[in-house]
Design goal:
mainly alpha, Four Helix Bundle (Hemerythrin (Met), subunit A), 11 helices, transmembrane, ICMT_MeTrfase, signal, endoplasmic reticulum, transmembrane helix
Length: 241
């Protein structure tokens, strides 16, 4: 039971960290700013998903987190009428026997989500108005090479990947509502798993997009970009990629 008391605030912290890391810090750019970056090319279907996918992911995380918090609180007070209804509704008949706990896997996942969210937030602050989810060239655009951008060239993508991996570990580890209640064996659970899998697959798009961003910045800033790339040769992880 003590682990359940600790689990609730940690779930909240993790959900907030994920929300912050997956929320665009600026409104969508103008069509002119996007057109300048695309060089006359049409916006691709994948580019059009750059806000829908994070919104969908945040909705899933918020929903699952809220349910897990409700179930944890119900387990702490199982005799109340409200708890009985919650456990019956969300636990597939396993409410009393379900081993909801704070496992090592969950702690690792939560730590990764907080780390990924912190990296993304640092990138938001460093780029300011220049940070957009769409490929964009702002008016008076400048090349930012400080803060996390002095370590790798695309740290926000690194942070986003850490967020995705961390949240997946959070939910698939032992002791979670998703695992212990056997949600994956239900039709809604399977549908949710398919959507989450599609979100993870879409995340692979960012690695290809980073190449295009490098080409765009090299064309726009020329020698300044070359100097930065020589000083910061890695896109995502120092000494690896």
């Amino acid at each position: 039971m003590p682990s359940l008391l600790l689990k609730v605030p940690l779930i909240i912290l993790t959900a907030v960290g994920y929300h912050v890391g997956m929320t665009p810090p600026n409104p969508p750019p103008s069509k002119e700013e996007q057109a300048k970056a695309l060089g006359g090319r049409d916006v691709t279907f994948r580019e059009r998903l750059t806000r829908l996918v994070p919104f969908t992911a945040k909705t899933i995380v918020a929903t699952v987190s809220a349910i897990e918090i409700a179930v944890a609180l119900a387990k702490l007070n199982p005799t109340s009428p409200a708890s009985t209804h919650i456990l019956a509704l969300f636990c597939s008949g396993r409410g009393g026997a379900m081993n909801l706990s704070l496992s090592a896997q969950s702690l690792v996942g939560m730590g990764l989500v907080c780390l990924g969210g912190a990296i993304r937030l640092a990138c938001y602050r460093e780029l300011g108005r220049l940070f957009t989810y769409e490929l964009t060239l702002r008016k008076e655009h400048k090349l930012v090479t400080s803060g996390p951008y002095s370590i790798v060239r695309h740290p926000s993508y690194t942070g986003g990947t850490i967020l995705a991996v961390g949240m997946t570990i959070c939910e698939l580890g032992s002791g979670t509502w998703w695992t212990e209640a056997g949600i994956i064996r239900t039709i809604p659970g399977q549908a949710l798993a398919v959507v989450w899998g599609a979100i993870l697959a879409y995340s692979g798009f960012i690695f290809r997009r980073a190449v295009g961003e490098d080409d765009l910045m090299r064309k726009e800033f020329k020698g300044q970009w070359d100097e930065w790339a020589a000083r910061v040769p890695y896109r995502f992880v120092p000494w690896l990629a």
